[in-house]
Amino acid sequence: MSKRSSTAVVGPKPSLGAAAVILALAVALPAQAGAASSRFATVRASVVPTTNAATGAFQSRSMSIEVVLAPSHESQLKALLGRLYSPSSASYRHWLARGQFARRYAPSRAESAGVASYLASVGLVVQRSSSPFLVRATGSSAAISGALKTRLATYVDPHGTSYFANASPVQLPASLAGGVLGVIGLTNTIREQSSAQPVRNRVKLGDRRPSGGSSCETPYPTVAQLVTQFVDGGNPPTLGYGAGPGCSGLTPSQDNSLYDAPNVGSRGQGSGQNLALFELSAYQESDIYTWAHEFYGKKFTPSLVNFNVDGGPLNPVCPVGDSCPPDLNGYSGDIEVDADIEMSLAISPANRHIIVYNAPNDETGQTSLDEYSLIADQDIADTTSSSWGTCENDVTPAYTEAENLIFEQMAAQGQSLFTSSGDSGAFGCIEIDSTTIVNAGDPGSQPWITSVGGTSFGNFNPGQNPFPSYPTGAETVWNPQGLCNTKANEFGASGLDWCVFVGAGGGGTSQYWGRPTYQTGPGVNNPFTTYANGTTHCTLARRGTPCREVPDISMNADQYTPYSEYCTGNANTPFSTCGEFSGAQNPPGWFGIGGTSLSSPFMSAIIADRDSFTGRRTGNANQRLYALFNSPNPK
Predict the structure, then answer these.
(1) Angstrom distances, CA of residue 382 to CA of 255, 271, 474, 619
(2) Distance CA 348, CA 473 (A)
(3) Is the bond preceding residue 587 a cis peptide, omega within 30 degrees?
(4) What is the mean pLDDT of residues 618-634?
(5) Distance (Å, whole) CA 635 – CA 631
(6) How far is residue 151's CA from residue 78's CA, in Å, rounded to a whole number?
(7) Which contiguous run of DSSP H or E holds residue 509?
(8) What is the pLDDT of residues 109-136, one digit of tens each?
């Protein structure tokens, strides 16, 4: 089958001309803003407490903020979402059409213009934003501090990382504050990372390429082998797994066979579906073609469509005063992008398009919101997977509220959204900022996203068998040899060190979100359940509410029972992760890959297959997943 690739460059464009209206009225209504400013009110949850040391006032000649506006008719929105996902409702799965969400639930022009007018009246420059729910403005740190009645400070965490954040609550005119959910851009701690766990530097690929009936099978690494590598600094164990080139991992036929994919032809392979991927790195399409030709033949060419947001990772148009570090852009996450695309192709090869959305990787989260907004506003993606995120402790209530509005829009439109739960067990921050607190990941803890965790096939190795059966009893939680834990000494290193060394399926309870109504079933209430307390547990929920728990579902993510990936780099792919090591693999470019970065696109592609088979969108998958979990006879 011959398909084509296309690329489009997209900047932030709000729905229904909202930004143009805001910009016009910001100039037209200065008197109203002045009157409103006589009395101020505090914006709820607008400062995040910290024990890190403040090192002084934060000063910048120019920075960008986004005021997050509450939706209009919010109670009606909640009721609509309830009906859309209730099988007994006449509105069940009657999704909103493109543009309807904004027309029904965007803030009124008066509300948006009131905020914009106030910001302009105190000297800020109001700019176009990516969403009618966001009012963007720029100005000096002093002007922004004055406008929001807050104090900006610089901090240093215990590991020496410097950042800025507001040290006091945000205040706005009382007539406006009630319609504001928060302000984004007052901290630069929102630094997203991928959840890919490559085999390189962790285990050594077998130097023999199987031929004929030879087997790739090598035993699962022992504790002694892992201690030799990570504690003693010795050689890693040799790994041969699955039927990928050079024993590099599972192949598409093995992926589908292990999880018992139905044999119904293209209708069960994503036919007609658009699978979207949220990315923050450039990639080489030639890698994808090489992978696809290996497993599907020379005549198969994937249909890749690329949308660059805010200039994309190669030509970043970073928000004013924000930072898009070069070493976090370019091809720095090519290993992630290739893995996401290749996994999507492994499960949904008959798709209409794989749509790769790509924004610069910034530090305030504004480019990520622009990218998610575009996915929602275009509404061409049936399913979407994101393997990028950070820990909840490093985002703010305002940022999570802005995300939630986008994810509610996607849910109302019937778009399925998945994300990886993380690769550090219950310690979601440990690989991001070295914080060892128990913390879940964002966006995985969001209520309108399906958080996908990790399992392992352990000692089961399918070798060269192209159609292995599911190994009943072999699949367990991903935590190699149980080494990721809280013990002070686990074979010469702390259990938390092992969470970094070998990884583990991420999960836990949310710092921000209460438990959604769909999250029920055996084990949901457990000794680790937390309840809203107004400070550290699900702070956006009513006190006493049980907190959201993640992941919602899990699939193989162990780098020691890996999937086969092809990814390369060269002098023309700056900051390429794959370029650092893959050329030395045998054969070059092929290696094993694990992490919940793989289980998320795997699950997204399964739902694309389901949509293809049923002829309709599934929407948010959690309601159906928990219904199956609670059913005595799941189908």
Answers:
(1) 22, 12, 33, 8
(2) 27
(3) yes
(4) 93
(5) 9
(6) 35
(7) strand 508-514
(8) 999 999 999 999 999 999 999 999 999 9
Nearest to 532 by CA among 521, 548, 516: 548
The SS3 of residue 450 is strand
Cβ neighbours of 467 (radius 10 Å): 10
Q: What's at 217, amino acid-wise?
A: E
Q: Does residue 158 or residue 221 have the better pLDDT?
A: 221
How far does the chain reach from its first CA to its final CA, in angstroms?
33
Q: Given this model, what pLDDT does residue 427 score? A: 86
- What is the token pair recorded at 303? 């249909």
CB 91 within 8 A of CB 156: no
Q: Which of 191, 225, 163, 283 is nearest to 565 (CA)?
A: 283
Tally: H helices and E strands in the chain: 16, 28
Q: Of 503, 601, 612, nearest to 561 (Cα)?
A: 503
With tokens 């024990």, the residue in question is 51
- Distance set, CA 97 to CA 379, 450, 519 (Å): 8, 22, 27
Q: What is the Cα–Cα distance from 507 to 423, expressed in whole angstroms?
A: 9
Q: What is the pTM of this model?
A: 0.93
pLDDT digits (tens, 9 = 90+) for 63-120: 999 999 999 999 999 999 999 999 999 999 999 999 999 999 999 999 999 999 999 9
Q: Which of 211, 229, 232, 236 is nearest to 592 (CA)?
A: 236
- Residue whose structure tokens are 């006032």: 57
Neighbours of 66 (CB within 10 A): 28
Greatest extent of the chain over all pairs of C-alpha atoms, in Å: 82
Q: How many CA atoms lie within 13 A of 406 on its CB side?
A: 27
User: Is the predicted pLDDT of residue 266 greater than 90, yes or no?
Assistant: yes
Among the listed residues 147, 139, 126, 111, the one whose alpha carbon sits nearest the alpha carbon of residue 20: 126
What the block records as the tokens of 65 is: 């903020």
What separation in angstroms does the CA of 518 have from each of 80, 245, 483, 521, 559?
Answer: 15, 42, 32, 9, 31
Q: Lowest mean pLDDT: which of 32-46, 216-230, 345-359, 399-413?
A: 32-46
**CA separation for the pair 357, 214 (Å, rounded):** 41
- Residue 214 pLDDT grade (very low, low, confident, very high; cuts 50, 70, 90): low
Whether 54 contacts 167, CB under 8 Å = yes
Which of 483, 455, 461, 471 shows the shortest CA–CA distance to 222? 483
Q: Say if residues 279 and 194 touch (Cβ distance below 8 Å).
A: no
Amino acid at 433: D
Residue for token pair 């550090």:
424
- Integer Rg of the chain from CA: 24
Among all chains, which residue has been given the structure tokens 């000297």? 123
Closest C-alpha among 235, 275, 18 to residue 129: 18
Place of tokens 């852009």: 329
Question: Above 70 in pLDDT, residue 159?
Answer: yes
